[in-house]
# Entry
Amino acid sequence: MALNKKIAYIDLTTGKIETKPIPIEVRKKFLGGRGLDMYLMYNHIKPGIDPLGPDNVALVSAGVLVGTLASATARTHVGGKSPLTGYIASTNMGGFFAPEMRWAGFDHLVIKGKAERPVYLWIHNGEIEIRDASNIWGKDTQQTREIIREELGDRDIKILTIGPAGEKLVRYANVMTGIKNAGGRSGTGAILGSKNLKAIAVRGTMDIKIAHPVEALEYNKKIIDLITSSKVSQTQGRFGTAFIWGATNTQGLVRVRNFQLNQLEDSDDVETESLDEDVFGMAGCFGCQVHCRARHIIPAGPYAGVYEEGPEYTAQGAFAGEPGCRSKLTILEGNHLSNIYGMDLLEVGSLISWAMELYEKGILTDKDTDGLELRFGNDEAVVEMIHRIARREGLGDILAEGGLRAAEKIGKDSIKYLIHVKGMSNLHSDERATPALALGIATGSRGSDHLRSRPAIDLYHLPEPVLRQIYSQPVSYDGPLTSDYRDYEGKPWQVRWQEMCYEAVDCLGICKYHTTFLGATLPNFEEWSKLLELNTGLELSPLDIWNVADRAYNIERLFNIREGLTRKDDWLVDRYFDEPTTLGIPSIRGRTIDRDKFKKMIDEYYEHHGWDENGVPRPETLKKLGIDKEPSHML
Ligand code: SF4
# Structure
C-alpha cells in the first residue's frame, strides 16, 4: 500500500544502516515529507550542535502522496539544522527523485555522522549501499548525475546531489534533483557536504498500491480540470514563473539596487518576452499538468550552446533587479552557474547586491574586491562574484559565510545595508506596500521567505466574499478581510492560513503551484482530504490535515526557540520602516511599513497561533495538538 514505505537510519561514521516501518499513528500526526522530517529533526538533533559538524542530521523524504495518482506529487523534502541561520533547514523541490525513492522502498532517510571519505548512497528496491565517491568529488551537479548513471549502468536512476558549493560548505549551498530542480534556501547542500555525502542515487520498481485506484483516477480528473482551467496556471505553463516579474516590476513591487529602489526601469532585455525568445519548450515534474520549467539553450557568451532550464522569477530578481543589471545573458549565466555549482541563487544575488552597495558606499574597497569594480549594473562583476563565492575566493569566501557572518567580518556599518530576516536574504520583492507579504517574510520559520506563508493572492484585489470563502475553511474565521493589499486589517489570519496551506502540501508532497498560492480557484484542504483517502486509504478530514500542518509548524517553532529564537527575530530591517518607495504606480509610491501597526500584526499573528506575546507556543496549544510531550522518540 501507499503507506508501507520505510524509514532508513544511515550512520556515515560507522556505516550502520537500519530500516523500520513508519507506524500509522505517526503518519496520522505528521503524514510525511516536511511534517515528519520536522518531527525527526526535533527528536534527533541535539540542542546547540554545530550545523556543519557530524552531530547534524540530514533528513531526506518524500511526501505521503508522492508517486500516487494525484497530480504533481513529486516533491522531495530535505531538512536538518541550517548552517546559514542556525534554525531549521528545510527545503522542498520537484523533479522525479522522490517518486523513485518511494518505488525503491523508502519514504524517509535519517542520515547521521560523517563519512571518512567522499561517498554516495545507492538505494534500489529495498537495498541501501554506501559507495565511494572520490571520482565525483569536485564535479558539478550535472557531471555528477552523468558519472553515477554511467557507473551504475542505468539512465533511469534519479539523483539528488550537491555541487562544488556544497563541498566547500557555502552556507547556502543547494541540493539538486535535476538540471534546475533546486532545494534552495537554508543550506542543506552544505549539510551533505559536511558529511562527505556527495549524492543519493535511487532506482526502484516496487509498487505503490493505490487504495481506491478507479476512484482516485476519476477524482484526479476534477483536480486536473481545476488546475488546467486556471488562467494563472496556463500562463505559468507558457512562460514559467518568469511571467511574475513583469507583473510585479510594472507596479514597483521589486527590490532594485539592494533595496534602494523598487522598480527596474528600461529593462526590456530582462522581461519575460525577451527570455522567451530562447525557449523551445516546457518541461514538468512527475505527474504535473502545468509544466512550468522553460527549456532553453544559452544563446551567447562563455556558455553559448549549453542546455538549461528556467530561469525563474527569482533569477530575474537576483541577477537583474537587485544588482541593477539589464542583461538577459547575465540572468541566464547566473541561473546556469548557480545550478551547476549548487547554490541558492536568491541568496547569491542578494549578497552580491549588498556587497555592491557596500562598495559604492566605500565600506568595501578595491583591496577587498581584488580590483573588481563591484558597482551596480556591472554584469561582469556579478558573474565573477558567483564563481568566487562558489570557489570561496577572496571576498567570495566571506560572502559564502552568509550575510550575518560576512557583516561581522566586514564590520563598519555593513550590517545596516543587509536585507535579511533571521540571517536569510529576502527575495527580491519589495513588500513595503504589502503588509501581509511583509508579515509573511518576517515570521517565516526558516527565515525570510516567500514559500512558507506568502498570501500571494492578496495582490489580486479579490472581493471580500471570495476571500472569506477561501480563508474561512477548514477553520472558521469571521474577523476582517480586505481586498486592498496595502491594508493591515485581517492580514495576520491570511498569513496564518497560507502557512497551513504550504505546510500541508509539503507533508503531502504536492507542488505549491497546484494550491491556493498563485490562484484563488486552485485546490486546498477539501480536495487534499479526498486525494489522501482515495490514494492511501488514510481518512483525514480537511480539519485533520490543517492540524497536521499546525503540529509540524509548532514543532518548527519549538526547534527554533530551542536554538535561541526570540520575538525580535520576527522582524524586518529598518529600511522597510524608514525609507519610502519612490517608484511605481501611484498607489505603491511613498509607502513604508508602519512600525506600530506591524507590531500589532505580529501580536495578532501570535494569537491566531495560540502563542504567547513572545511567540512561544502556549502549553494548551501544544496539548491540543498532541505535541506537549515532544521529543517523544516514536521514531
Ligand atoms: S508546476 Fe512546475 S514546479 Fe510544480 S510540479 Fe509542475 S513543473 Fe514542477
User: Anything to note?
Assistant: The first strand starts at residue 6 and ends at 11.
